[in-house]
Amino acid sequence: MPRSAPAPSPYRPRRAALTALLLAAALTGPTLPYATAAGGERPAPRTGVTGTSDQELRQALAGLVAAPGGPPGAIAVLTRDGAPRVYRAGTAETGTARPPRAHDHMRIASVAKAFSGAVALSLADRGALGLDDTLGKRLPHLPKAWHAVTLRQLLQHTSGLPDFSHSARFQAIIRADPRHRFDSRRLLDFAAGQDLAFPPGSRYAYSNSDNVAVALMAEQATGRRYEDLLRELVYRPLGLRDTSLPSGFRLPRPFLHGYATSPGEAPEDVSEAISASGAWASGGIVSTPADLSAFIGGYTGPTLLSPSARHAQRRFVPGESQPAGPGENAVGLGLFRYTTRCGTVLGHTGNTPGYTQFAAATRDGRRTVTVSVTSQVPLDPALLTRLRAVEERFVCALLEDGHHGGYGDRTA
Asked: Tens digits of per-residue pLDDT, 41-50?
């Protein structure tokens, strides 16, 4: 496991209030009727796709970094049949020439929700949890109005649970102290006075509360801490040695520094500005580009889950991940489908102060792509559009049968 870093100097950013608001303002997508769902996979036609050179991929990342308000650093890992290639642009830390590396630590934000999906579906495979188990059965102490919500609905964001991170009380604490250490298992208390936003199963609405509830159900079913379940069911089987779920604000060394960026202003380092305890199972995991690539391949492929669990996982309904990934988005159980002009991949996105993430793989998990950048790109809609185009370019390269590396680094 990664070693914790020494205590850094007190955090005194130029824009402390802004940084706090970036954490507290969870980005939620449109609420869509569940009735418009379409099951199964629909690969996009591959017509009109041309070859993508490694030099073009490098240039795409460099263009993103050079854009007004762009991230100081970007790194992508493209893996085909176990052979990774690393593409990078910019720096891992402003003021230095150190490039982003595949074994640098970073916050993976809401890609952590895919990890909670992996835990829950693994427990379902073992008979410890059922996808139709309800909050009333597993967590009867939660508000009675929530009791009919099922594990399946939580994993698919069709539960209607109010988002705890929208609570005025939660946001006030973050504004006063971004490094406040929450009792992560009490995060749902911030939303406990609210009813469901809609009848369970009727609509899609992204909520950070969903995956906190998933982790609590996993703990209730096993009598074990969620952090221990991650190690046993996910990290160990996939060989993830640099992935952890901390409760504080520190990052293990070395790490990709994350920044608050704005056109015309110097980037502000917010890498250790916030405590992971306020996100926990919904977004608190720390990993590396190398580990994230190994995870998404194992999660989509046959390594972790049985065929029946993967079948349940891939009952998709319309819904954008947050932030939106490339192409047309649809949501399954702890997993999104991205249908691009070149074909379909499965994965997850995430964003938090200092970081934006995209991780995806083919259905068999043998080809994976991750794109990690060191700023919260969705705060700038134009920059997000550009990032999604970069992500799609990498997806196209991933799916091209004739793609051969010439410039991507084979090592970290």
From this structure: 333 333 333 4
DSSP letter assigned to residue 224? S
Alpha helices by DSSP H, 110-225 = 112-125, 135-138, 151-155, 168-176, 208-222
Is 287 within 8 Å of 276 (Cβ atoms)?
no
**Token digits for 93?**
């830390």
In angstroms, rounded to a whole number, what is the distance separating the alpha carbons of residues 227 and 94? 32
Contacts 24+ apart (CB under 8 A), 4-11: 4/246, 4/250, 4/252, 5/250, 5/251, 5/252, 5/253, 7/250, 8/250, 8/272, 11/178, 11/179, 11/249, 11/272, 11/273
Strand partners, 372: 75, 357
- What is the phi-psi region of residue 259: left when phi exceeds 0, alpha when psi lies from -120 to 50, beta otherwise? beta
Quote the pLDDT of residue 323: 97
Q: What is the CA radius of gyration of the chain?
A: 20
Q: Which residues of the chain have pLDDT under 50?
A: 1-13, 16-22, 24-31, 34-50, 403-408, 410-412
* Residue of 93, 105, 109 lying closest to 3 (CA atoms): 105
Backbone angles phi, psi at 136, to 5 degrees: -60, -35
Length of the chain counted residue by residue:
412
The residue with tokens 């379902």 is 124
Question: What contacts 326, CB < 8 A, 6 or more positions away?
Answer: 338, 340, 358, 388, 389, 391, 392, 395
Which amino acid is it at 33?
A: P
Going from the C-alpha of 103 to that of each of 252, 274, 283, 292, the distances in angstroms are 11, 22, 20, 10
DSSP 232: I
Residues paired with 106 in a beta bridge: 287
CB 342 within 8 A of CB 401: no
Q: How far is CA 124 from the centre of its chain?
A: 22
